[in-house]
Amino acid sequence: MNYVLAEEEETQVPVGGLQLTLYQYKTCPFCSKVRAFLDYHQLPHDIVEVNPVMRKEIKFSTYRKVPILLANAGCPIQLNDSSVIISAMKTFLISKQKSLEEIMYYYPAIKATDEKGKEVTEYQNRYWLMLDEQETKQLYGSKEAQMEEIKWRRWADDWLVHLISPNVYRTPGEALASFDYIVRVGNFGPVEGLFAKYVGAAAMFFIGKRLKKRHNLQDDVRQDLYKAADTWVKAVGKHRMFLGGSEPNLADLAVYGVLRVMEGLKSFDEMMANTKIKPWYQRMTSTIQEKAALH
């Protein structure tokens, strides 16, 4: 593990004239998805670790969640929501005809009210790339491959991510170990860190139990995690290195990004030992590290 308070990466030659800055929590699975995407696609970017209490680093934004990707090409363009960020940036990398500003019009934010009366923001088309027919065919090869990628990107957001908290906060000891890591890599002040470690660990232990109930998880939440890992391995199959074939696609990067936040924790080690996901995970790690080292 890399125990740092705020990670800054030196920006090199911007892609398409864009300077990218990612506002994140290092241990957030949605942020980790975006980092995996940026590193794999060799997109130089600065990282700003956001203080999770005050969040002053994102005071410029009315959108108060992370990740936020700021793309600056004279005037800044703000991209919200991990799946929108990934879809929009992938479209930008492939499309030769659209600016990033134009691309963002395809991902409108729609405000709605959920069943509890709370206002929520939904993003339209978040799993779709806005490409023409020729670009789509060149990228995917077939409609089936395109729909497979979308299906598993949704699965990562709608199911896999909900298994993380109940597993890393499964017991008081695991909750404390998780918060010890969160505080060490996060942007906390000394008092905030001490408070977060002990009070946060206790709170998340109980929140983990509530999430377990909300998502109808088994009493032993590890079993849901193991089943999800093996479900993913089965989807990849025995004859492909990745879901995307010889190279990871956006679903590979999403699943990897979500699971990566458990690295170094008991839940991660037990998942590696009790499922068939380890070879795929190791291939993903090597591939992304090799790509990231090139920029």
Automatic annotation (TrEMBL):
Pathway: Lipid metabolism; prostaglandin biosynthesis
Keyword Protein biosynthesis recorded: no
The reaction(s) this protein catalyses: prostaglandin H2 = (12S)-hydroxy-(5Z,8E,10E)-heptadecatrienoate + malonaldehyde; prostaglandin H2 = prostaglandin E2
Record-linked CDD domains: GST_C_mPGES2, GST_N_mPGES2
InterPro entries hit by this protein: GLR_AS (IPR011767), Glutathione-S-Trfase_C-like (IPR010987), Glutathione-S-Trfase_C_sf (IPR036282), Glutathione_S-Trfase (IPR040079), Glutathione_S-Trfase_N (IPR004045), PGES2 (IPR034334), PGES2_C (IPR034335), Thioredoxin-like_sf (IPR036249)
Membrane topology field: Single-pass membrane protein
Keywords assigned by UniProt, alphabetized: Fatty acid biosynthesis, Fatty acid metabolism, Isomerase, Lipid biosynthesis, Lipid metabolism, Membrane, Prostaglandin biosynthesis, Prostaglandin metabolism, Transmembrane, Transmembrane helix
Main location: membrane
EC number, UniProt record: 5.3.99.3
Leading EC class: isomerase
Subcellular location: Endomembrane system
Keyword Transmembrane helix: yes
Sequence ranges assigned to domain GST C-terminal in this UniProt record: 180-295
Source domain of life: Eukaryota
Family listed: Belongs to the GST superfamily.
PANTHER family reported in the protein's UniProt record: MICROSOMAL PROSTAGLANDIN E SYNTHASE-2, PROSTAGLANDIN E SYNTHASE 2
Name this protein carries in UniProt: Prostaglandin E synthase 2
Record organism: Staurois parvus
